């Protein structure tokens, strides 16, 4: 006999259940009013949404006709898995039977791309349009900027990346250029007219070549539905539209939803205004606050008050943080998960100690049975993780990073380390190739000639001196040659690294728009390098090319491998871990010194801290290094700040924490994960020598 259908919704609380059942028994599917679930972190909004998907399908809705919009592809996958599990049981399927799939789940952008491929011919777009990623779009913007001669004529014309941000903000916020400039880029206001010309050229060029950038995916989708017939067709096609993290949608996305479901019937959105953290991408928290009144009849609003994620002490501390926010939709949250462990506020001397403390604690918890995967380290900005990444690499602790490139894999860090590598081993062709290519006028052929000369040479310095560079590269070659000669001569640690960075700086400026930030990164490497005894140790302990190099979602190591999660707070949205470590909770970083301007920005930084803290289920450590390195201010000289604890953690918040000062810290020997006893890959390679 087939297994009996279980009531998989039995564990929902009454409010969650009423959201799941909304509209199902009243007027059938068509006449129902829209639904808004607005509630605090960890109250089961995402779970409720997944349950509603399962319930709709159980009651006969066609999975093809459900549109599920989430904030990342990862979140969409997770939601589909959750709903699938429930459906499996709710439908009483056998173990071998798969639950129905949800073909239309994903991000706004992903779904937009698929719809546009399908509807392209009907709106005069080539179905084989090319999608530009962010870097492509920047390049295209850069080309137009050059073609119009803007880079030269106007003094300090914004960089191509900034131009794209301005453009993007206007599109996503559905706002006029002058407004965007006034509010967010006031220093660009003088070139308002030039920017307008640039954007026109950019748009024309995209259309000429049939290119779409990310914003176009939303823009064309919205445009598509400005045609009443097409809007009705799509609205009919998707019987139910469900959106998670609605507080971080922008106006264009809200427009899309409104055109899709003008009466709001069949529309379900869930979110938490206290977790709105994407206004820099033109997200509009008013979308969620004003949602109910947009429709007639108005949306049904369900509030959830029970938090199932965090222990009482963690919840209290997070509530204390958000209670100090200026404006918010008042919410109460309670939990029955008592615990005697309070969150920790850990003061450490500097970022190096911070990295050690976190690595120690992560391993300690792992010893106690908490897998690395159940722990996460969160930070405000990707580069703040750099010292920790180096520490983890040194100790052989595997990790993946979300929301930014791994530090050791970023171009500029690799460039500099390659110079050192090459000096350490002048036979190294890979490093040699990479380094020589940095010189302007040095093509692949010359690079090959150089490394061919260096590799077999008994005296590499001699080979360097004898080498004849291509004419165009004569000057830049001399500088590199002298640098290498001195590095090959004898190792002086860490001065070697300093001289490499000094040599590299002008190239950095030539190659990258954001040279100052990258230079600051490199200075951080120099600083960290001082902790390594010698050049050789530095190079061997920081594997340049980790085998499972994985800085994006696609590159996650194998399923049952264990690894620590490193993530920006922005990318940690909606997720939860048993243990959470929050780095650099100091002023200048949280709030970021880039945001200390407007009150609204400060408030967003406060919400960011709230999001970070509410990711923790059982253990939470908030780190406060007393000395802190400020990347963004590197241009202005003083780089080490004597940091003070974040302004979001005043006395009345801190009393919810256990304080751990430098005095209480144990100076235990640093544990490491065992390195493999032998490098099998190396042996296999040897077999071919
Ligand atoms: P966030 O605002 O961070 O996105 P959320 O409101 O979406 O949080 P969920 O992620 O859905 O919250 O749920 C948080 C945790 O609580 C999850 O582990 C979930 O399984 C659990 N949970 C939610 N509702 C219940 C319930 N009724 N019974 C048991 N566990 C629940
Ligand atoms: Mg959620």
TrEMBL record:
Reaction(s) this enzyme catalyzes, per UniProt? ATP + H2O = ADP + phosphate + H(+); Couples ATP hydrolysis with the unwinding of duplex DNA by translocating in the 3'-5' direction
Alphabetically sorted, this entry's keywords are: ATP-binding, Helicase, Hydrolase, Isomerase, Nucleotide-binding
Entry-linked SUPFAM superfamilies? P-loop containing nucleoside triphosphate hydrolases
Q: What is its EC number?
A: 5.6.2.4
InterPro entries (alphabetical): DExx_box_DNA_helicase_dom_sf, DNA_helicase_UvrD-like_C, DNA_helicase_UvrD/REP, P-loop_NTPase, UvrD-like_ATP-bd
An individual GO BP term: recombinational repair
User: Which superkingdom, per the lineage?
Assistant: Bacteria
Protein name from the UniProt record: DNA 3'-5' helicase
Protein source organism: Roseateles chitinivorans
